[in-house]
Amino acid sequence: MPTPDLNQLVVLDAVLRENSVVRAAQRLQLSPSAMSRALARVRETVGDPILVKAGRGLVPTPRATELRDRIGQVLQEAEAILLPVRMPDLRRVVRTFTVRTSEGFVETFGPAVLRRVAKDAPGVHLRFVARQTRDASGLRDGSVDLETGVVDATTSPELRQVPLFADRMVGVVRAGHPLRKGRITAARYAAAAHIGISRPTIDQGWVEAALAGLGLERHVTTTVSGFATAIALARASDLVATVPERHTAALRAGMATFALPFVLPAISVSMLWHPRMHADPVHAWLRECVRSTAGLARRT
What is the dihedral sign for C-alpha 244, 249, 253, 259? Predict the structure, then answer.
């Protein structure tokens, strides 16, 4: 049995509303002959004449009368499906979003984002998870809704993205560190004991390459997997941590931060999401919460 042409529902709805082929044709902006052909196909599909002559006019058959209200409801539901989704009442939304990002990002921007979420949509729950890979599978399969990080040539081209802020690498030591006495030169920086950070999302090889260009090499005494751990170690020792400045602003409170005495590439931190979530109005609202929060931090 062939699949019915769903366009016939529109024809049938117009005919039953007007009880006239001519007026139905005008309603659908068709010629009377085209409308007659369309109605003939509907009659063949339904197996019913739909309209029959009664004196000088037409009246619906019992089958047509039975279908009239059902067809209108079906078409209304179809239109609702095809129309753009409207923003729901955020105060009634109950959803959980998983945001993959770094501890530093959560420490620095998380409180402001959470305040905005609590104010606008108290039923929305944010679940922050660590970003330790550039793999896009989480965004692709829906286990991650939103992500922040550095975009480069390895970032999946299918992802949507928007820049949040530019960052730079800085040195950080405890407040009374000997390195703070006098001008910090590249030679003094390299001679200090350092914490290495092994993570694929920030290229620590930039530091080694810059020092090598100056004929220098730093001494890394220990290696950790994240900026938060590196800062915690530097706070309690004479080790030097080299971390992104804005990304770790809250983590470095009470410590001494200094500009690196050599040039490194700038870091662009972006927000990323999968295209399948782009038109979701609540997801778009959350993206704006994150973007505006990071944007305010960028301007301060």
Answer: positive
Q: How far apart are CA 54 and CA 52, in angstroms?
A: 6
Strand partners, 147: 100, 272
Report the amino acid identity of residue 165: F
pLDDT in tens, 257-280: 999 999 998 888 899 999 989 989
Distance CA 206, CA 265 (A): 8
pLDDT digits (tens, 9 = 90+) for 18-75: 888 888 889 888 998 998 898 899 898 888 888 888 887 888 888 888 888 788 788 8
Fold equal for 7-82 and 90-166+268-299 = no
pLDDT tens for 221-260 read: 999 988 889 999 999 999 999 999 988 888 899 999 999 9
Amino acid at 233: L
Q: Which residues pair with 96 in a beta bridge?
A: 125
- Which CATH superfamily is 90-166+268-299 part of? Periplasmic binding protein-like II (3.40.190.10)
Q: Which amino acid is at 225?
A: S
The CATH-assigned architecture of domain 7-82 is Orthogonal Bundle (1.10)
User: 169 pairs with which residues across the strands?
Assistant: 244
- Whether 286 contacts 120, CB under 8 Å: no
The DSSP-derived string for 215-247 is: T---EEEEEESSHHHHHHHHHTSS-EEEEETGG
CATH code, residues 169-265: 3.40.190.10
**pTM of this prediction exceeds 0.90:** no
CA pair distance 163, 269, nearest whole angstrom? 6
Sequence letter at residue 85: V
> Where along the chain do its domains lie?
7-82, 90-166+268-299, 169-265
Which ranges of 19-166 does DSSP label H, i.e. alpha helix? 21-27, 32-46, 62-82, 103-120, 137-141
Residue with tokens 């500009």, as numbered in its chain: 259
